């Protein structure tokens, strides 16, 4: 859903929440929003290609308060978190973050959040677009574990791009350089309480600043934009171009409750050969034993350059047989190619295989290629 309005009246009512940064984003030029986790998220600051180049060349600031936090505390918090995810968390340190999957009893993916460990028994799940707060509270009811589960007053911003580190130094001082990839620090900025992590949904060098006081959203936004002015910082939105280049999963597009981790090539996030117990373990053992029937692949699609991302799933054919669907597609101005993520029959995943994609009645030639399409070793975000 995309909402645009020239007079900047975006209201649907109070059932769709505004972030603490909403007014600032409108003031800085946001003209379109969609709804994610029951909240507005800015989707339009002008030309998406310009937004992409701002990200990869300089830096952008994005309101991602829609990444709601599920806070889990209590004496059994660690044991409970491990029940939710198939990833082995036994080496997760205080102050560390992990990309995890939340699975159901059938092994389906319910969410792919970033897990942050703030204390011995203090965790946040930074969510993609689904109601894991309700899932976690439901799981807890009959778990027999002593945990408290809630949504705290926490709203993240993403500062992403190659100049983001210098902006952070200007804001927090030289010590911020020591923050490692997928680690966090609890900090204050002019009495604004924050958690700062080396994470972000861009596959570029970047940081997330988790605001812990929603009344100070406007102040925080303006402080960051002021600090970033000399570095070319621009207001922006999460880039579909960059995330597809990086092969990043978008929940509801590339995966859903009927998708299992092995189909996505996320075997590394599933631990089956240990004594840890988690929801869906029995099903995932069986899926792993039998093998998957479909698999996510990368595609390059010929023809005219796309004018925007796909808004429906496009069917894929090989020798007149429908073998799968394109889930996310976009034109990459850096690669000068139409690129896409797709889910196809496991028998049609060979690199170099030529297929066709049906786009609004038009058949286009395509070829299966390696993914990610750019920076496969993630040297940029981890630098």
Walkthrough of the structure:
By secondary structure, the chain is α+β, with helices and mostly antiparallel strands. It has 3 domains: 3-67 and 153-243, Probable tRNA modification gtpase trme, domain 1 (Gyrase A, domain 2, 2-Layer Sandwich); 69-150, Aminomethyltransferase beta-barrel domains (Alpha-Beta Plaits), CATH 3.30.70; 293-383, Aminomethyltransferase beta-barrel domains (Elongation Factor Tu (Ef-tu), domain 3). The protein contains 8 helices and 22 strands. The strands form 5 sheets. It has a 6-stranded mixed beta sheet. A hairpin with a 5-residue loop joins β7 (102-103) and β8. The longest helix is centred in the middle third of the chain and has 12 residues, at 217-228. The two termini are 35 Å apart. The model has no long low-confidence stretch (mean pLDDT 96).
Defining traits:
Alpha-Beta Plaits; 6-stranded antiparallel β-barrel; Elongation Factor Tu (Ef-tu), domain 3; alpha+beta; 6-stranded mixed β-sheet; 8 helices; 383 residues; Gyrase A, domain 2
Principal-axis shape = globular
Q: What characterizes the major β-sheet?
A: 6 strands, mixed
The count of DSSP E runs of length 2 or more, i.e. the number of strands, is: 22
What would CATH call the homologous superfamily of the largest domain?
Answer: Probable tRNA modification gtpase trme, domain 1
**Name of the CATH first level of the largest domain:** Alpha Beta
Poorly predicted runs = none
Q: What does the radius of gyration come to? A: 21 Å
Whole-number average pLDDT? Answer: 96
Strand order of the largest sheet: 13-14-15-12-4-16
List the domain count as a whole number: 3
């Amino acid at each position: 859903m995309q909402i645009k309005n020239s007079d900047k009246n975006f209201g649907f009512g109070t059932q769709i929440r505004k972030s603490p940064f909403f007014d600032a984003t409108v003031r800085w030029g946001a003209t379109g929003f969609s709804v994610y986790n029951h909240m507005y998220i800015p989707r339009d600051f002008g030309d998406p290609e310009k937004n992409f180049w701002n990200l990869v060349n300089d830096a952008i600031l994005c309101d991602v308060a829609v990444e709601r936090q599920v806070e889990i505390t209590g004496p059994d918090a660690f044991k409970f978190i491990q029940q939710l995810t198939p990833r082995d968390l036994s080496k997760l340190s205080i102050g560390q973050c992990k990309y995890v999957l939340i699975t159901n009893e059938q092994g389906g993916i319910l969410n792919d959040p970033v897990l942050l460990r703030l204390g011995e028994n203090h965790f946040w799940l930074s969510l993609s677009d689904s109601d894991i707060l309700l899932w976690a509270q439901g799981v807890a009811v009959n778990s027999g574990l002593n945990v408290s589960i809630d949504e705290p007053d926490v709203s993240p911003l993403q500062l992403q791009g190659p100049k983001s580190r210098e902006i952070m130094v200007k804001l927090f001082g030289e010590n911020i350089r020591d923050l490692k990839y997928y680690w966090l620090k609890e900090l204050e900025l002019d009495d604004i309480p924050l958690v700062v992590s080396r994470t972000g949904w861009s596959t570029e060098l970047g940081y997330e600043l988790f605001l812990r006081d929603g009344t100070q959203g406007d102040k925080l936004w303006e402080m960051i934009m002021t600090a970033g002015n000399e570095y070319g910082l621009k207001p922006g939105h999460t880039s579909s171009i960059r995330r597809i280049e990086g092969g990043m999963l978008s929940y509801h597009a590339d995966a859903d409750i009927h998708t299992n981790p092995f189909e996505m090539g996320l075997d590394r996030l599933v631990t089956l050969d240990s004594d840890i117990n988690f929801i869906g373990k029995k099903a995932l053992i069986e899926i792993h034993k039998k093998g998957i029937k479909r698999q996510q692949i990368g595609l390059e699609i010929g023809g005219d350059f796309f004018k925007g991302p796909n808004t429906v799933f496009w069917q894929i054919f090989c020798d007149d047989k429908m073998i799968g669907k394109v889930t996310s597609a976009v034109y990459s101005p850096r690669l000068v190619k139409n690129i896409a993520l797709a889910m196809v029959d496991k028998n049609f995943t060979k690199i170099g295989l030529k297929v066709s994609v049906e786009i609004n009645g038009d058949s286009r030639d395509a070829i299966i290629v390696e993914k990610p399409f750019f920076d496969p070793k993630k040297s940029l975000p981890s630098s």
